[in-house]
Design a protein that fits this description.
The structure is a homodimer. By secondary structure, the first copy, chain A, is mainly α. Helix content of chain A is 64%, strand content 3%. The interface between A and B is medium-sized, with 33 and 33 residues.
Chain lengths: 499, 499
């Protein structure tokens, strides 16, 4: 090994040990959400706090800066898209960010968001926005302060926040693509609302045996390609996906005995996330080369399996016979009607209950509002009114109170600003990817109808998964699909969902 | 705070953070044995290795020695049985041990035992003692070396090993108490063997629905006092109990659909361990004050619930009605016969399948053999012959091969020498404790028959659990029962098991 190679090896060893600790934290959190005894919570927090201190120390270790300085002049960093070149570029990006933020600000933010979430829970329960307002005000100030330390000259503060979740994304570009989507959706949503009012009861609502749902969901997850030798499926209150090691990916769902969608579509969604993680390069685990490209790209993988595949007619042509074995009541439901009911479009106040079409509207509203808050075009005091006005204008419904309006999501109370847009970015990427795969594989629906999922998964592995963070997300999507970032594919897809 | 109090606070904070890491390791191990994906093992080992390095560093931190030196002259250490005094005494004991062993020996032992277990698995499968002999030879040499670094002048090397699992126990005393037990057992065992040959099929063997066993075992564990708000019950291949925090105690069992005993008695055994841990003082978690007194005392708690309570007639008078609801085939089995079949005495070659009476004979044989190995009165090459002779002499049966003989247990391959006697020490303590509780509570059987377990658990909490390691095990038992360590109570108890 020459000097640069030795430096690279030292850096990689450092990242490797940091990843061992972070993966351990992921297990502590997974266990907390699956079956930790009720009274074990305080001690668990202490364990997490101790380890997160170790991790923070490691991530701001000045040796990282020295190693990077050495490597920046070496041949190893010549190609910023090669595994090693990308590793150096991304570690530099993360390290610079970590050292640029003073510990006092990080602690202040941690305290404000921890408290903020507690206050939010109570405020939501009591429908009392005024009680939450001071917390939100403080959180926004702190995140503005953070953004001002990170933003380059002349860059909008919001972009510095967005960039943490979606590398390289600019709010100006995102806003213009989102506006096009919004303008396409508004008339459809109005129209769908009228149609929905005439629809009868949905076949998706009813009584569905939980044990049968478990069997069916696990069978589907396995068939689409989630690898159970390298993962598991458990149950929790708020479904998520987490990675505990290069060969340890865990997905979690919850089942409802009165709605078929909750369990299965939760599993499809989380399995999409899980298969992405399973498609990263295990040998590079713990480095940016084997880390998801962005939250938006992550969401594109869950949405592609959940919506583009799982809500399609060919998917049900394939799996309805199996479903009918487990749920005899489905014998009486025609596939046509079942798929139509699964895809029903209906305006609602609550984001997490929204259908595929209106879902994006909930996101666009939050994106517009949080940009306003960070830019100080919108005061925290005026947020509930602004929220309600946008729901009125875009979805044609007005929340009767703040609990069903501005207080519904945990995100802002947790300091997550710049995070919401990644949900719709995920939907946009998913539609772009699905169109490209459909073209290159000669029709994905044709394969799905036969239960052949391997070609689609292989295509995603080849075009997206294996690269990790080597390309910034929008470049990755353009490289994979041949098309620049645009909401056109999503608009085309959503149009097919309208009656 | 005065200076000593400040020093004590620093020591306790150090212990607290070490415990946070050790509890995290316990979770990594628990998860490994409950549901970790098949391919995640290598990475899990790396996580454990990293954390165990941190823990070792903390346990040999020279500041501990300095703090102890300061505290040894303070009033705080005046009473060696008070919480603080015992903490100082036990931490001194552990620290001295940790720093007396050179890191090279520890690493050598870790490597030899890790390899030893792999070699043992293969040797057992192939019935090839010769393949295992070099590993065992090396492990014994290393543990002799360890013992010679720890033993005080003139002390037998074996005692230095035994002392690690059972503080203060002397092999001379243990051997004399064990011999008395052995001499009582030999004629009974011979006699039982003849009776067993005349017995018909056992009602305990048959087909027992696993889901019903789960329900029944969980119900029993809850009724006897295992706190599910501070613990959980899961399944694994080799049952165990582990503690993950002051309010997080996890027990594991396995169920067999052809034997009723495996599942339920596994749960009773592990719940006994778990309730001991739940009875330690949560505020002193991570210190010797809230650590089990010894392996023998730990085993006494599991055996007391499993054997003294669970195999008794009053226990089945109480729970048979509930069992019959879940296992309709028990309607046809009289309680008399059921309890007799559960308590059947029969000589067998395999320790873990042995009944309550012959079980101890398996332990006594191992104890005598390993004392011989450490004293070099017995050569590793001659071990299989010596093993078989003892089985012949004490149990009247001779193993047909080494796989069913000397190769059956993992312990020696894992370096666990001095560990086996704690199983019979546990049985002895359990019998002593049960007799004392019976006397003081006016008949435990009377309470058990009514399903009233709280008085017995409260008695154990008061006499044993709450003290942790504040008293050495044999002192603790004498203090709790009013009687010195002796096998008399166990002999009286086992006599009742004979037909």
């Amino acid at each position: 090994m020459n000097t640069s190679e030795k430096t690279l090896a030292a850096l990689r060893q450092h990242l490797h040990e940091t990843a061992l600790l972070e993966s351990t934290m992921a297990l502590l959190e997974w266990d907390e959400h699956t079956g930790m005894p009720d009274r074990a919570g305080d001690y668990r927090s202490e364990q997490l706090m101790l380890l997160s201190g170790f991790v923070h120390q490691r991530k701001t270790d000045p040796r990282i800066g020295e190693w990077l300085d050495e490597l920046s002049t070496s041949d190893l960093s010549a190609d910023p898209y090669s595994p090693v070149g990308a590793l150096i570029r991304c570690v530099r990006r993360d390290y610079d960010r970590n050292v640029r933020l003073p510990e006092s600000l990080i602690k202040h933010l941690a305290k404000a968001t921890s408290l903020g979430q507690q206050v939010w829970v109570k405020a939501k329960r009591d429908n009392d926005y005024a009680a939450f307002q001071p917390s939100l005000h403080e959180i926004i100030s702190l995140r503005r302060e953070e953004a001002s330390l990170l933003a380059s000259d002349g860059e909008p503060l919001y972009d510095a926040l967005l960039d943490q979740y979606e590398e390289g994304a600019k709010s100006k570009d995102v806003a213009s693509v989102f506006e096009k989507l919004r303008d396409a959706l508004i008339p459809w949503v109005r129209n769908a609302q009228e149609t929905a009012q005439q629809a009868g009861p949905s076949s998706v609502e009813g009584v569905f045996d939980i044990e049968a749902q478990r069997t069916f969901s696990r069978w589907v997850a396995k068939k689409i390609g989630f690898d159970f030798e390298r993962g598991r499926l458990d149950e929790t209150v708020h479904p998520f996906c987490t990675t505990l090691g290069p060969h340890d990916h865990r997905i979690l769902t919850r089942y409802s005995d009165s709605s078929f969608s909750t369990g299965l579509y939760g599993v499809l969604h989380e399995a999409g996330h899980g298969m992405y993680e399973q498609g990263l390069e295990p040998d590079w685990y713990g480095t940016p080369v084997a880390t998801a490209a962005s939250l938006g790209v992550h969401e594109s993988q869950s949405r592609l399996w959940e919506n583009s595949v799982g809500l399609s007619r060919p998917f049900w042509d394939w799996c309805m016979p199996e479903a009918r074995k487990l749920f005899p009541s489905l014998e009486a439901v025609a596939i046509d009607r079942w798929v139509r009911d699964l895809n029903r479009v209906q305006c609602s106040l609550i984001r997490i209950e929204a259908d595929e079409v209106t879902y994006n509207m909930h996101i666009l509203i939050r994106f517009e509002l949080e940009m306003g808050l960070i830019a100080r075009d919108l005061n925290v005091a005026d947020l509930p009114e602004a929220w309600s006005d946008k729901y009125q204008n875009y979805l044609g419904i007005r929340p009767p109170n703040d609990a069903l309006g501005v207080l519904q999501d945990v995100h802002w109370s947790a300091g997550l600003i710049g995070y919401f847009p990644t949900y719709t970015l995920g939907n946009i990427y998913a539609a772009q990817l699905y169109e490209a795969a459909d073209r290159e594989l000669g029709g994905v629906g044709r394969l799905v109808a036969k239960g052949e999922f391997a070609p689609l998964l292989a295509w995603l592995r080849e075009k997206v998964h294996r690269f990790g963070r080597r390309y910034p997300p929008m470049e990755l999507i353009e490289k994979a699909t041949g098309n620049a970032f645009s909401s056109d594919a999503l608009i085309r897809h959503l149009r097919t969902k309208l009656a």
